[in-house]
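About this split. The held-out portion is used to measure sequence recovery: a designer receives only the structure tokens and must propose an amino acid at every position. Recovery is the fraction of positions where the proposal matches the reference. Here is one held-out target exactly as it appears in the evaluation file.
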């Protein structure tokens, strides 16, 4: 199957979204072109910032040394995170008890949580807690906010550690909203070990698990495994899922919501 360069590059990016890594020789055989042609395609995509070249192929662009600090992440894909936060807020029903973990997308969910009644929010996010405190005092929603105790992480603007884990054990929630560093057909992952443990515990204590992920997280496998994909009920993203994921999502009963 010989394709034009732009078509090949589009297929390569779709494969990266699905499996996270591609190799030159199988790609050349797949598309019916030379190895050198594939190398040129990969070099062009790397120059466009869409992948990273490695020996024998390429991997999807991700943070090699952990995520940048919270303040830097706030400006990345900002409009997408706003849209995801607004759409995720629609999934909160009056009377719900919900968990909100850390991250800049969770911050946008907290900002969008308005007009709800009798809800209880449990969170280990310092920024989300501040937003929710202000919303409560202004009467923008009605309910309670519980912030988990423990050690403060300045880079993540979160609370974690043993005390946080012990406190979280006491709560069961209707819905857990989880912001992640990466999502593949194998599962969800993140860059921070301590926050990943808290997210894993929250997932195990939730009736419904809702993952918030902008398009940059698709196909990324971050440092810390949080949960297999079948542990997730709903994914809210600013783009539709990769076509190659359709069967897997249907098989595992996962709803993918595209936020406008």
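Reference sequence for scoring:
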């Amino acid at each position: 199957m010989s394709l034009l360069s732009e078509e090949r590059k589009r297929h390569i990016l779709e494969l990266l979204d699905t499996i996270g890594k591609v190799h030159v020789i199988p790609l050349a055989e797949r598309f019916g072109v030379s190895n050198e042609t594939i190398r040129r395609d990969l070099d062009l995509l790397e120059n466009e910032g869409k992948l990273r070249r490695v020996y024998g192929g390429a991997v999807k662009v991700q943070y090699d040394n952990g995520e940048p600090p919270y303040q830097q992440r706030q400006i990345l894909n900002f409009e997408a995170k706003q849209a995801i936060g607004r759409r995720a807020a629609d999934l909160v029903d009056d009377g719900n008890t919900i968990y909100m973990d850390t991250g800049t997308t969770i911050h946008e969910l907290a900002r969008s949580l308005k007009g709800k009644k009798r809800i209880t929010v449990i969170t280990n996010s310092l920024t989300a807690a501040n937003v929710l405190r202000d919303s409560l005092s202004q009467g923008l929603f009605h309910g309670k906010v519980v912030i988990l105790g423990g050690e403060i992480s300045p880079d993540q603007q979160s609370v974690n550690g043993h005390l946080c884990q012990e406190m979280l054990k006491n709560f069961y929630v209707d819905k857990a909203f989880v912001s992640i560093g990466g999502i593949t057909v194998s599962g969800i992952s993140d860059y921070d070990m301590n926050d990943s443990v808290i997210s894993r515990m929250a997932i195990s204590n939730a009736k419904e698990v809702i993952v918030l992920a902008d398009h940059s997280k698709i196909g990324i496998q971050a440092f810390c495994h949080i949960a297999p994909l079948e542990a997730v009920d709903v994914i809210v993203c600013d783009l539709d899922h990769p076509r190659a994921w359709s069967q897997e999502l249907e098989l595992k009963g996962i709803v993918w919501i595209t936020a406008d």
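Annotator remark: The chain has a mean pLDDT of 90.
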